[in-house]
Amino acid sequence: MSAQSLAMNNGNNGHSEQRRVIVCAGTGCVASGSYKVFQALVEQVRAAGLPVVTEFRPEHEAGAVRLNKSGCQGFCQMGPLVTVLPENLLYTKVRLEDVPDIVAETLVGGRVVNRLLYVDAATKKQCRGVEEIPFYQRQQRFVLRSCGTIDPESVDEYVHQGGYAAAKKAYLQMTPEQICQEITRSGLRGRGGGGFPTGRKWEAARSQPEGKKYVICNADEGDPGAFMNRSVMEGNPHSVLEGLMIAARAIGADETLIYVRTEYPLAVQRMRTAVKDAEARGFLGDNAFGSGRPLRCEVMEGAGAFVCGEETAMIASIEGQRGMPRPKPPFPAQSGLWGKPTIINNVETLAHSVRIINEGAEQFRKLGTAASPGTKTFALTGHVANTGLVEVPFGTTLREVVFDIGGGITDRRGKVTRDGFKAAQLGGPSGGCLTRAHFDLPLDYDSLRGAGAMVGSGGLVAMNNKTCMVAIARFFMDFTQRESCGKCVLCREGTRQMLALLDDIIEGRATAETLDLLQKLASAVQKGSLCGLGKTAPNPVLSTLRHFREEYDAHVFHKHCPSGQCKALAKLSIDPAKCKGCTACAKKCPVHAITGERKQAHTIDQALCIKCGVCADTCKFEAVLGV
User: Fold this and answer.
1) How far is 570 from 208, CA to CA, in rounded Å?
2) Are 615 and 591 in contact (CB under 8 A)?
């Protein structure tokens, strides 16, 4: 997709003549004060004597400024974000005090507020809008296309842009068999982690003789650092609901349910508003689209358990039981909610189905790879210059995501470094680590599985060379151990023992036997656990053991953490060749462990040092070693 097309998809949607200001109201920007920015814009535009429209109208008043809140615009690190159309300006890190200048300079005077433009770290160039910002230029946004532009609580705007046309087509012009065949031809695979072919799942449920069937949207996004599903629900909830309706028609279901984690209050609110508005329009109810077929939808808040992202545990939770998985078969498509055929797809999968029904399977297959067609959203976080929500075709390489879109790796001070990349954890606690050797590995289901990682839900955490990979493995193991439902012994006790072994390693108590036992135990948990949580829990440990064995050996045999992050093994010192004797570190040390004369090299008293790292954060000359 060209930069011009991307600008169109993220901006004016064909209405270039309309003066429009879009304030990002995704969770990240809301937390940074975007609601206050929006209200101030409304007040000050009116004070400037300009007509203001805050609701969608197909025909807008000449000269009026339309102000609307959107969902996540993706560039989360630079929020709050404000887009101005038709100029396609993107203002970043907008504060209340910036609002008068936006109104006076841009909306009234037609001038750009240069200090609010994004400056590319690599080229030092000011970028006017998304068509000039590398973060957006390298993406191809389809699921996220409208998330940063339309009002997520306006069913009128969604319909005006072609919304619900696919669901209406599915109900009035297609048979369930035709829908399943089209989804199968598209090659769409589940975006929730496993990558199972969606068409096969739908066909399995459709062919069941049972009359009563259900469709569940899995919006229980529990991976640390993952926020893809949340952003789609917050930014374009009707696209999720429309996909759910298509799935219901495909299998013959008349009841659907959206299972959202309770930690997503904004997503819950917007999904419920979408359901209410769809009912008012007649899209949902006793006579969906006038087809004579009933269709209902309920939004349910999950109980906050990571294991409930597993489909059988989710079903148990919906039924009022403790969220614990059960053996398969039977699969949910055969016997699911209340013992009836049930399909469960995640938010992104359902949103993709809308495009497939609208544009056809062949159009969908034009992006991605043969075995993994289409695009995938990733939550890009960690030690990377540009964090946020990205969407790229399957087959895009790790190098392109981290360096071209993410802008490169940052050091502990936030400065972009050329050779600072160490690893990327892909797929959250269920995934694995990729290294520099995987820079040009295509990001798709099969390639990643071969590298010991997985797409998972799409969390991608980039790490610099000051990251301790043993500590990272321990972080994810601590998460999965706490989230284990306890049903099967290997997961319940195995993850607990693996966590204890990792504690021994980072605290200096480990021996060669510890490493051997950790490897064997990880393999046993992987093979013998009942559900996906237990089977994938050892992945971070196994992948770091494979790719960073020398770090484990250093911890165990030399009682040394090469990255200086494990406090029990850290030994901070000051390089006399770099120390300028500025005394800054001595002044900041909370236990007065640093001594030395001004303009002379300082030293650290190991008996007093608590290894907090404040000295390293303070030193401008990078003279502190061991961190």
Assistant:
1) 61
2) no
Q: Which helix (H) or strand (E) holds 574?
A: strand 573-574
Question: Whole-angstrom Cα distance, residue 189 to residue 447?
Answer: 15
| Chain centroid to CA 198 | 21
Higher pLDDT among residues 466 and 1, named by residue: 466
The residue ranges of DSSP E strands in 254-402, in sequence order, are: 255-260, 296-301, 342-346, 375-382, 388-393
The kind and range of the H/E element at 520 are helix 512-528
Flag whether pLDDT at 110 surpasses 50: yes
SS3 readout for 576-614: CCCCCCCCHHHHHCCCCCEECCCCCCCEECCCCCCCCCH
Residues 6+ apart with CB under 8 A from 211: 252
Helix axes of 237-251 and 347-359: crossing angle, nearest 10 degrees: 70
Helices 549-557 and 469-483: crossing angle in degrees, nearest 10, is 90
What's the whole-number mean pLDDT along residues 67-88?
93
Residues 6+ apart with CB under 8 A from 371: 187, 444, 445, 446
Max Cα separation, the chain?
87
Q: Contact 188/197 with Cβ under 8 angstroms?
A: yes
Helix (H) / strand (E) element for 183: namely helix 176-186
**Of 493, 443, 444, 435, nearest in space to 469 by CA:** 435
Q: Which two tokens stand for residue 506?
A: 């980072």
Contact 99, 37 (CB under 8 A): yes
- Who contacts 59 (Cβ-Cβ below 8 Å, separation ≥6)? none
CA atoms within 13 A on the CB side of 288: 26
Is residue 408 within 8 Å of residue 158, measured between CB atoms? no
Tokens of 287: 């006579």
CA dist 95 to 50, 85, 99, 276, 607, Å? 21, 19, 7, 34, 47
The least confident of 205-209, 295-299, 302-306 is 302-306
65: helix, strand or coil: strand
Residue 42 to residue 73: CA distance in whole angstroms = 20
Tens digits of per-residue pLDDT, 568-580?
A: 888 888 999 999 9
Radius of gyration of the chain (CA): 26
Is there a contact between 219 and 258 (Cβ–Cβ < 8 Å)? yes
The secondary element (H helix, E strand) that includes residue 417 is: strand 416-417
d(Cα 246, Cα 403) in Å, to the nearest integer? 37
Positive or negative, the Cα torsion across 386, 389, 392, 398? positive
Dump pLDDT digits (tens) for 529-539: 988 888 999 99
Are 48 and 128 spatial neighbours (Cβ–Cβ below 8 Å)?
A: no
Could you tell me whether strands 296-301 and 255-260 are parallel, antiparallel, or unpaired per DSSP bridges?
Answer: parallel
Which residue shows structure tokens 């300006």? 89
Q: 518 Cβ partners below 8 Å, 6+ apart?
A: 498, 501, 502, 505, 541, 545
Q: For residue 365, report the phi and psi dihedrals to the nearest 5 degrees.
A: -75, -5
Q: Who's near 621: CB < 8 A, 6+ residues apart?
A: 578, 579, 580, 582
Contact 253, 214 (CB under 8 A): yes
**Distance between CA atoms of residues 591 and 80, nearest Å:** 39
Q: What's the pTM?
A: 0.89
Peptide bond into 590 cis (omega under 30): no
